[in-house]
Design goal:
This protein is mainly beta. The protein has 1 helix and 8 strands. The strands form 2 sheets. A 5-stranded antiparallel beta sheet has the order 2-6-3-4-5, with no helix packed on it. Strands 1-7-8 form a 3-stranded antiparallel beta sheet, with no helix packed on it.
């Protein structure tokens, strides 16, 4: 998880992550099942249903996925954003220190 530089107004936060910063892996404890896939030529956006909501991952078109298939999810922690659910405000973290996003 990113090192936070701010605090939330309440303990509930939301995780923000772009599909290109998510990968499918069998070794992750964060699990879900394939809900859908959208082919975009050389890549595809795979939607995974988890117990906490949907997560999208960008994978190669050659990656075979099947609806309902169980998968694990891994995130690039240096690319995660944390949002205060109440205000919708992004909480400053190490990601934002250099001014580069994405």
């Amino acid at each position: 998880m990113p090192e936070l530089r701010d605090t939330a107004s309440q303990p509930e936060c939301a995780l923000g992550v772009r599909p290109e910063h998510v990968r499918l892996t069998d070794t992750s404890p964060l699990r879900g099942s394939i809900y859908g896939a959208e082919y975009l030529g050389t890549t595809q956006i795979v939607t995974v249903a988890t117990g906490r909501g949907f997560v999208k991952a960008r994978v190669t078109s050659e990656t075979t996925v099947r609806l309902g298939e169980p998968v694990g999810l891994a995130f690039r922690p240096e690319k995660l954003s944390i949002f205060d659910r109440r205000s919708g405000r992004v909480l400053r973290s190490a990601l934002h220190d250099g001014g580069a996003h994405g």
